[in-house]
Amino acid sequence: MAAPDLSRNAVHLLPEGELERKLERGRPLRVKLGIDVTSPDIHVGRAIPLQRMRAFQ
Q: What is the pTM of this model?
């Protein structure tokens, strides 16, 4: 998968060029997402980061 596909709709990607370098290495990427699982409310807005993470699979 190309870096432009993964960074589409991203506001900032820091540090600059790091995603491309990591993709060139061919090693698995580590992606972290912080979600408050103790929150009593679940809404569709929480699905958006999960959909973007799916692009990394």
A: 0.47
- Tokens 């569709």 — which residue? 44
Report the C-alpha gap between 45 and 20 in whole angstroms.
Answer: 28
Burial class (CB in 10 A: 0-12, 13-18, 19+), 54: exposed
Contact 19, 13 (CB under 8 A): yes
20 three-class SS: helix
pLDDT in tens, the chain (57 residues): 566 666 777 777 668 788 888 889 988 888 777 777 787 776 777 778 888 778 777
Backbone φ/ψ region at 27: left (φ over 0), alpha (ψ -120 to 50), beta: beta
